[in-house]
Amino acid sequence: MTHRTLGIIIQNVSGWNLLPQTIDILPDGKEESAPQDRNDMILFSALCCLQHGAFFIGGTMRELIDKLRQTQVLAKEEWIKLIDGHSEASAQYLFAQARQVRCKIYGQDVYIRGLIEISNYCKNDCYYCGIRKSNKNAVRYRLMPEEILACVQNGYTLGFRTFVLQGGDDAFYTDELLAALILQIKKTHPDCAVTLSLGERSRESYRYLFSAGADRYLLRHETASQSHYAMLHPPVLSLAKRKECLFQLKEIGYQTGSGFMVGSPGQTAEELAEDLLFLKDLNPQMVGIGPFIPHHDTPFAGKPPGSVELTLFLIGLLRLMLPGALLPATTALGTLDPEGREKGILAGANVVMPNLSPVGARTKYTLYDHKLCTGAESAEHLEELKKRIQRIGYRVVTSRGDFIKQTDLNPEERKSSHVSV
To answer: Is the pLDDT of residue 16 over 50?
Structure first.
């Protein structure tokens, strides 16, 4: 059992007395007030409040979070208020709500995806990306089908039941090559899901790969603001085209994933609100967000990274807005914070994606600087990952980890569908 204190401890100041609210998080996800003897008195002053801002969640913030949980809908102005007004206290209140929602649907289960980075060749020139075509310092590689199948076999032995084939926009991987690869994976491992993350393709290509057996497709929109999209991408790339691809994927029948960077250059609270409004409209089964991290060989080298705290806050908001969504605690979170993965789970996430790529390729797929690809981020250290997840009260399971629509799924039904690893 874990516990969290909603509030900020302030030392060496005098003034009012306040009893903070300490919450115990029970194994079933429910929360209750902690025993009286664990509530320490806090002393603070009105002057301190004026100097440092609101320490405790205000009525408006709590009302907006409650409204989001109840309705899954907010207006743009309300999103902006939540984002601009977020604090440690409001975050902890939000995370408690997010955990309750997530546990009602998915219990304590954390799904693992085996990430196979098949190529760092890319025809695009996104200004933030380390594998952009203009980066002459990138050491290029691409995996052959037999190498990818070997990664899948290794992952299956380790306990993975979803494999994510991710890469740059590389014309080498034709529809025919990918379809044959998907068919082979499905033939060898019929109990597994195949997720593709290979950029913008034609509707015909998406349909062809879906017919071959691909289950899911990840395509982050990165920003839903036209002006901000133009700041991050060259003119040849279009936000309208990106959105069109996402709606096509849903129409075809993929479990579809989108997402955005947090703290990318030029981003404002208004643009984050537009991201949330777009995701509500798209209603994807998966949403992946992570803090922006600069790469030294891009036009954004030297720009400050995004905020871990704001990223976590947005994960919590996404859990309330899209209760059944599959939300990963991303590698970027773990890159900026050694406990980023665990914090992501406690904020409402329920997916982690260890790296199954060949060891020699991992350091070449550098979308941003200092990207983690060893330790608990690697598939070979799944036991370490499992222990870290267990320490915060959750469990890694052997499962395809499909999207669940039924918000009233009872715990016994959940238990019967997964096996702990």
So the answer is: no
* pLDDT confidence bin for 251, thresholds 50/70/90: very high
DSSP annotation of 376? G
pLDDT in the model for residue 318: 98
d(CA 93, CA 58): 11
**CA dihedral sign of residues 388, 358, 330, 104:** negative
Q: How far apart, in whole angstroms, are the C-alpha atoms of residue 405 and residue 407?
A: 6
Number of H helices, E strands in the chain: 16, 15
Residue 362: per-residue pLDDT:
84
Q: In this predicted model, what pLDDT tens digit does every residue of 134-182 receive, in sequence order?
A: 999 999 999 999 999 999 999 999 999 999 999 999 999 999 999 999 9
* Separation between Cα atoms, residue 161 and residue 142, nearest integer Å: 23
The answer to whether 403 and 254 have CB atoms below 8 angstroms apart is: no
Look at the block and give the residue holding tokens 């036991």.
Answer: 383
DSSP annotation of 375 reads G
Residue 17: Cβ-neighbour burial (10 angstroms; 0-12, 13-18, 19+): exposed
- Residue pair 298/129 in contact by the 8 Å Cβ criterion: yes
The beta strands (E) that lie in 107-181 are given as 109-112, 114-119, 162-167
The pLDDT of residue 363 is 83
Other Cβ atoms closer than 10 A to 26: 14
Number of neighbours of residue 199 by Cβ within 10 angstroms? 18
Mark residue 385 as left, alpha or beta (left: phi above 0; alpha: psi -120 to 50; beta: remaining): alpha
The pLDDT score that the predictor gives to residue 419 is: 45
Which residue in the block uniquely carries the two structure tokens 């405790």? 56
Q: Render 18-75 in DSSP notation, one character per residue.
A: E--EEEEE-TTS-EEEPPGGG---EEE-HHHHHHH---S--HHHHHHHHHHHHHS---
Per the CB < 8 A criterion, the answer to whether 235 and 263 are in contact is no
What would the two tokens of residue 185 be?
């994976």
Residue 101: is its pLDDT beyond 50? yes
